[in-house]
């Protein structure tokens, strides 16, 4: 009985903390040096309550301009704890509730770190749910919607910076979509929602050329959705036909006369080449069919 009451009180405290998470990074009582020492010790925190509380507090560091704090400590700590099953239901819920709002565009995120790294940690949260379902149907639906809206809304295409580290919004959004696509609890309509978001970012409007592996990351959720077998061969042929349509260009020949056109061709081709490379040697019928359709699509590009 005492353990049950203690667990319930901890759950309430974590959810309250998630709703009013401190913006302090490092968290109160910690320094960067102490956090680096924690990392060196493989993020070992023996006390369960202390570990859960620190996990919620460290979420503030996902907004830090310091890549050591943001990527090397906060993200790595959350991933380590989530992947080794060191959180209970209440802690996972607290992290989910704290990060979902961070996916939305926020003028306060001027540096552009918060949303991409919220998506990356939420990918790890989604992974725990696909391995052993714990979210409610409503929460899973909310996460699918938020993930799709985040991915299709990315317009900051910065990848890596030698001083500031990664932003990589498209890739991180694709990672979240992939973990959701792998979840057997998702239905066809939810997979279609994720697929539409992926489709929008394969060759986004504008003059940005993908150079940080975004095409490969976008490919992963698409491939896993295909492997679910809920879409037939005709669907994928039509999907690829739409992908190689030159619009809004009048024709693919005109792509060579503008940066936007060249970017569209480059990004479309990069995705198709990655798709073909990942399907051509497969023995799965759906992958063999995709390989044939992808080869035709590549031949249709100038």
Give descriptors for this structure:
mainly alpha; single chain; 302 residues; two-stranded antiparallel sheet
Architecture blueprint of SSEs:
Blueprint: H1 2-19, H2 32-40, H3 48-58, H4 67-83, H5 89-99, H6 114-131, H7 137-153, E1 160-161, E2 165-166, H8 169-181, H9 188-202, H10 214-227, H11 233-243, H12 259-279, H13 285-300
Antiparallel strand pairs: 1-2
How is this structure best described in words?
The chain is mostly helical. The protein has a domain at 1-103. Helices cover 63% and strands 1% of the residues. A two-stranded antiparallel ribbon has the order 1-2. α4 packs parallel to α6. The longest helix has 21 residues, at 259-279. The chain is globular. The model has no long low-confidence stretch (mean pLDDT 93).
The total beta strand count reads 2
Task: State the secondary-structure class.
Answer: mainly alpha
| Largest β-sheet summary | 2 strands, antiparallel
Shape field: globular
Distance between the termini: 70 Å
Quick recap:
With 302 residues, the chain is mostly helical. It has helices at residues 2-19, 32-40, 48-58, 67-83, 89-99, 114-131, 137-153, 169-181, 188-202, 214-227, 233-243, 259-279, 285-300, and strands at 160-161, 165-166. It has a domain at 1-103.
């Amino acid at each position: 009985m005492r353990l049950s009451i203690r667990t319930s009180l901890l759950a309430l405290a974590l959810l309250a903390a998630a709703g009013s998470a401190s913006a302090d990074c490092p968290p109160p009582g910690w320094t960067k040096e102490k956090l680096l020492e924690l990392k060196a010790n493989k993020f070992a925190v023996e006390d369960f309550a202390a570990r859960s509380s620190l996990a919620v507090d460290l979420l503030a560091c996902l907004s830090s301009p310091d890549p050591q704090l943001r990527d090397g400590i906060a993200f790595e700590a959350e991933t380590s704890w989530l992947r080794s099953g060191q959180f209970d239901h209440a802690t996972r819920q607290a992290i989910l509730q704290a990060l979902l709002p961070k996916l939305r565009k926020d003028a306060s995120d001027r540096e552009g770190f918060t949303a991409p790294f919220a998506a990356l940690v939420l990918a790890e949260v989604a992974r725990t749910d696909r391995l052993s379902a714990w979210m409610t149907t409503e929460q899973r639906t909310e996460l699918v919607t938020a993930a799709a809206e985040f991915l299709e809304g990315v317009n900051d295409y910065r990848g890596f910076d030698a001083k500031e580290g990664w932003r990589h919004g498209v890739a991180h959004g694709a990672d979240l979509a992939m973990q959701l696509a792998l979840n057997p609890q998702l239905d066809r309509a939810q997979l279609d929602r994720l697929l539409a978001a992926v489709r929008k970012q394969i060759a986004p409007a504008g003059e940005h050329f993908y150079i940080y592996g975004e095409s490969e990351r976008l490919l992963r959720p698409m491939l896993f959705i295909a492997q679910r077998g809920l879409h037939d061969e005709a669907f994928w042929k039509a999907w690829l036909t739409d992908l190689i349509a030159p619009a809004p260009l009048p024709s693919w020949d005109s792509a060579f006369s503008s940066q936007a056109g060249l970017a569209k061709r480059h990004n479309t081709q990069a995705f198709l080449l990655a798709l073909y490379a990942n399907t051509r040697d497969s023995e799965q019928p759906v992958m063999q069919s995709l390989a044939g359709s992808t080869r035709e699509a590549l031949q249709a590009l100038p």
